[in-house]
Automatic annotation (TrEMBL):
The active site is at residues 39, 199. Keywords: Hydrolase, Lipid degradation, Lipid metabolism. SUPFAM superfamilies: FabD/lysophospholipase-like. It comes from the Bacteria. A motif (GXSXG) lies at residues 37-41. A motif (GXGXXG) lies at residues 10-15. The lineage of its organism: Bacteria, Pseudomonadati, Pseudomonadota, Betaproteobacteria, Burkholderiales. This is Patatin-like phospholipase family protein. Residues 6-212 form the PNPLA domain. Pfam families: Patatin. It comes from Janthinobacterium fluminis. InterPro entries: Acyl_Trfase/lysoPLipase, NTE, PNPLA_dom. A motif (DGA/G) lies at residues 199-201.
Length: 353
């Protein structure tokens, strides 16, 4: 088995694509040693790190079986994409306290997901960093910045890691996972230690920073990192109707923006070459090497190890489609995307189990 790290985006029911990707990677001989997620990606991360008995594929299957809606026999399978708007019994339920509607800050309750996570995930194992390092990110409603809750932080990474991003070692429980997916107005903010949190994807839907904080020094230059990209936005045809416009707007909102801040015209490869030159040319005794900013810059060298597995452009209802047909289609698409990725790149060949 070969070790890898995983970065899982948010996207509602599109998380079934991640389920397919991870299952296919496992079958190719890859084993996650660190995983970070946002929103549905945080739920998948909990299922991965908290897989009872270490059987990740079975754990993901149980979680997705729980949150997939029952088949409606009299309605064509392909026309059941929007039924989750009426609730998802093991995930969320619509509020019925209409007498208090003027005070609502959400449309649904996530109480069912607490029970689902506690039933299917081993939180004692999730908090064992020697088993697997895991982090989930939520958006602090008071500051507007992200907070990452982790069962492990590498040396020199605790505290503020840039752009107001707080990295916090925590004893993870279901509330941390749900906080990462508390997307308004559907879901209310989740309280953690007196602070209110919304969905982590509102700030950044690709929690690469959180993953970098999990890496040990000897992994920065070598550990393969798989990013599952649920919202590709480049190279797509122009929208031709209002539905396609709304779909593209959603993709742009949640797309991976991490690369945009590095390298200028030199892009990411130029930035990484600069980091290598800086490390080589800066004297070993330089006081700059002791600064937290320098340690963070050196940690960014891990971006050279990133492999992106990309989904197709999502449909307008894709994030809400928890129907058996929708979940199965997204799962199979994730498996197919892994095959295409390795066939196209040949950069990380399959490892015998």
């Amino acid at each position: 088995m070969k070790q890898m790290a995983l970065i899982l985006q948010g996207g509602g029911a599109l998380g079934a694509f991640e389920y397919g990707v991870v299952t296919a990677l496992l079958e190719r001989g890859w084993q996650p040693t660190a995983v970070t997620g946002v929103s549905i990606g945080a739920i998948n991360a909990a299922a991965i790190a908290g897989a009872p008995g270490g059987d990740i594929a079975a754990s993901l299957h149980r979680i997705w079986a729980a949150i997939t809606l029952p088949q409606v026999p009299w309605l064509p399978a392909s026309q059941q994409a929007s039924l989750s708007l009426f609730g998802n019994p093991n995930f969320y339920r619509p509020r019925t306290d209409y007498y208090d509607m003027a005070q609502w800050t959400s449309l649904c309750s996530t109480v069912p997901m607490y029970a689902t996570l506690n039933r299917h995930c081993d939180f004692e194992q999730i908090n064992d960093a020697s088993h697997m390092r895991v982090a989930v990110t939520a958006t602090d409603l008071q500051t507007g910045g992200p907070t990452t809750f982790s069962n492990h932080l590498a040396a020199r990474t605790e505290g503020i890691i840039g752009d107001g991003h707080i990295a916090r070692r925590a004893h993870l429980n279901a509330a941390h996972i749900i906080a990462s997916g508390s997307l308004p107005p559907g879901f209310a903010a989740t309280d953690i230690d007196g602070t209110q949190f919304w969905d982590g994807g509102l700030f950044s839907n690709t929690p690469i920073d959180a993953l970098l904080n999990l890496l040990e020094a000897d992994e920065v230059d070598s550990l393969p990192i798989f990013v599952v990209d649920l919202f590709p936005s480049g190279g797509l045809p122009l929208p031709t109707n209002l539905i396609e416009v709304q779909t593209r707007m959603t993709a742009l909102q949640y797309q991976n923006r991490f690369w945009a801040q590095y390298g200028g015209s030199a892009r990411l490869p130029g930035f990484l070459d600069m980091l290598a030159a800086l490390d080589t040319e800066l004297p070993p005794a330089s006081p700059l090497r002791q600064r937290p900013a320098f340690h963070w810059l050196m940690r960014l060298r891990a971006l050279r190890n990133v492999q992106v597995i990309q989904a197709a452009e999502p449909t307008l209802t894709g994030g809400a489609d928890f129907s058996p047909y929708g979940v199965s289609s997204a799962y199979q698409a994730g498996r197919t995307a892994v095959d295409k990725h390795f066939a196209a790149t040949r950069a990380l060949p399959a490892v015998p189990a």
